[in-house]
Amino acid sequence: MTLEAQELNGRAVEQRSSERRSASFATLRGALFLHRRRNFRRTNDHVNAYQDWHGHLPLAAALLILMLCTVDAFLTTVLLNEGAVEMNVFMNWLLQQNIHAFTIVKMALTGIALLILVMHYNFMIYRYIAVKYVIFTLVPAYGLLIAHELNMLASI
Predict the structure, then answer these.
(1) What pTM does this model have?
(2) Is residue 124 helix, strand or coil?
(3) 10-22 pLDDT, tens per residue?
(4) CA distance 110 to 89
């Protein structure tokens, strides 16, 4: 990549070659597998520090939570058709407006919350609770919610 300095209206302006901005498989490979901040620089940096790659387990947990959220949304609509009542006021209002809006908002809120949690994977909440444990605790919690909904569906 070459840098050229050009004179434009009396100011020096840097221009990068166009090959840096082009999309390629090498760019995709670098984004997926060549992470810049995989390890910490100092030994004390592992708490309250950002990192590019956290490993396969947080990724699997986040994807599993999203899948369980999808199953939860489906089971919620099935239970509502059978006469159940949505207890969340906001979600109940969305269900009254449009079922597609309910699904989109439910998935978007869960996805944004997971993104924020994974970004802060190495952080502590109130100095005692590690965010990484919150992420891994959400998987069985969603599992219990799905089991409860299936139990409610079986009793109808």
Answers:
(1) 0.66
(2) strand
(3) 555 555 555 555 6
(4) 17
